[in-house]
Write a structure and sequence with these properties.
Layout: H1 2-11, H2 13-44, H3 46-49, E1 56-59, H4 75-81, E2 86-100, E3 108-115, E4 127-130, E5 140-144, H5 145-151, E6 162-165, E7 168-176, E8 187-191, H6 192-198, E9 208-213, H7 219-230, E10 233-236, H8 237-251, H9 254-283, H10 285-293, H11 298-330, H12 344-370
Parallel strand pairs: 3-8, 5-7
Antiparallel strand pairs: 1-9, 1-10, 2-3, 2-6, 2-9, 4-7, 5-8, 6-7
Helix pairs in contact: 1-11, 2-9, 2-11, 2-12, 9-12, 11-12
């Protein structure tokens, strides 16, 4: 019986391939767009999450997103350090600058991050080339690997390059591996004293204070104690990352644009698969009538249609997932795509969505078969 169902399905290759294409296209579109959407949200919080040695971020109460830091007075650092439940606190500087170099034909907007001169708190963990300690030397910087590839595309990593940031000369002494942020893909690290000299001057220079609680204390509770003692905003790393993501969701057009594309992918899948599958069933009504005439029950026919739909889903879903995975695999060496990960949770969610699409297609198609009069096979 199931063999007959599969022969009926694959016998009409145009409609069979049409159904498979609809599922594959919908799967590919959903997988690609959802992964990019999730990746962009992750990048919006990457500036917070890459600072792994501090559990607490202290900032001006008006700050909602790491890239819109409101400068603090230098004295705020010592006020945070004075809180008994704080193990240590260090300055963290974030600002923008313009990079130029004699070997470049254009200028680049870059992000500058300043690390505590004494401890280098907030420094990147993974170094691709060079030694983190070298950044302690005057007028030296680290650059992220993706940023290096974007500024000098196609060239091998090279230490010792001299560039100008805001008309101040610095030497690249290390290359680190960190994700880009939502607004910045070229990121330079320097000591705090070097960073504040690179960025445009203003009266207050301190962007954030990063801190860690004493052993055994909950970071969320210590953050509340810092707020009570200083009047500043203190958030755990996860809370600040979530706030940064929420800021992007609420203040940009990303959710609307990606949501529209994702909905379009689902609608296209439903339209193509449902209409094609419905037409396939309609064109095979005489065959289904013949089966009913020889004693095949409605329940057996329902199972036959389910087998047909299952084959379409497996083949189409496999092709779509394979295409999406190939897209991100091919882009893993690209600075623009290397941090967009095609996660298994996305694959599972798409599978559920495609299954619902196939169930809808079955529901819209099966009714004509169930009410079909077997005698139709004997009519001209």
């Amino acid at each position: 019986m199931y063999t007959i169902a599969l022969k009926l399905l694959t016998g009409d290759r145009i409609k069979y391939l049409g159904c498979v294409f609809g599922v594959a296209f919908s799967t590919l579109l959903l997988g690609q767009q959802i992964t990019i959407f999730i990746g962009l949200l992750a990048l919006s919080a990457s500036g917070v999450n890459t600072v792994r040695d501090a559990d607490i971020w202290v900032s001006d109460p008006r700050v909602q997103y790491i890239d819109e830091g409101e400068p603090l007075r230098d004295v705020e650092l010592y006020r945070v350090r004075s809180v008994p439940s704080v193990e240590w606190a260090a300055p963290f500087f974030v600002d923008r600058g313009t990079l130029r170099s004699p070997d470049l034909d254009r200028a680049y907007l870059v992000e500058i991050r300043g690390l505590d001169d004494a401890t280098l708190a907030g420094a990147p963990v993974e170094m691709v080339m060079g030694n983190l300690e070298d950044v302690r030397n005057p007028e030296t910087v680290l650059i992220n690997a993706s940023g290096y590839q974007l500024i000098w595309p196609g060239e091998d990593y090279e230490l010792g390059r001299v560039v100008e940031i805001n008309e101040r000369r610095v030497k690249i002494v290390g290359i680190c591996e960190i994700p880009s942020t939502f607004l910045a893909d070229k990121i330079f690290y320097a000591t705090y004293s070097t960073a504040v000299n690179l960025a445009p001057g203003q009266r207050n220079r301190l962007s954030y204070v990063i801190a860690d609680p004493v052993d055994g204390r909950d970071p969320a509770e210590v953050a509340k104690e810092i707020e009570a003692a200083t009047g500043l905003q203190a958030l755990t790393r996860d809370a600040f990352a979530d706030r940064s993501i929420r800021f992007v969701l609420e203040n940009t057009g990303i959710p609307v644009s990606f949501g529209a594309v994702i909905i379009m992918g689902a609608v296209v899948g439903i339209a193509i698969v449902s209409l094609t599958f419905y037409q396939f069933v309609s064109d095979n009504l005489r065959q289904f009538a013949a089966l009913k005439a020889v004693g095949v029950t409605n329940w057996q026919i329902i199972r036959m249609v389910f087998v047909q739909a299952t084959l379409i889903e497996i083949v189409g879903f496999g092709l779509g997932v394979g295409g999406a995975a190939l897209f991100f695999y091919a882009g893993q060496d690209s600075p623009d795509l290397k941090y967009f990960i095609f996660r298994w949770q996305v694959v599972l969610g798409i599978f559920v969505a495609i299954t619902l699409i196939m169930l809808l297609s079955i529901v819209t198609s099966i009714r004509r078969v169930l009410v079909l009069d077997p005698a139709v096979v004997f009519r001209g």
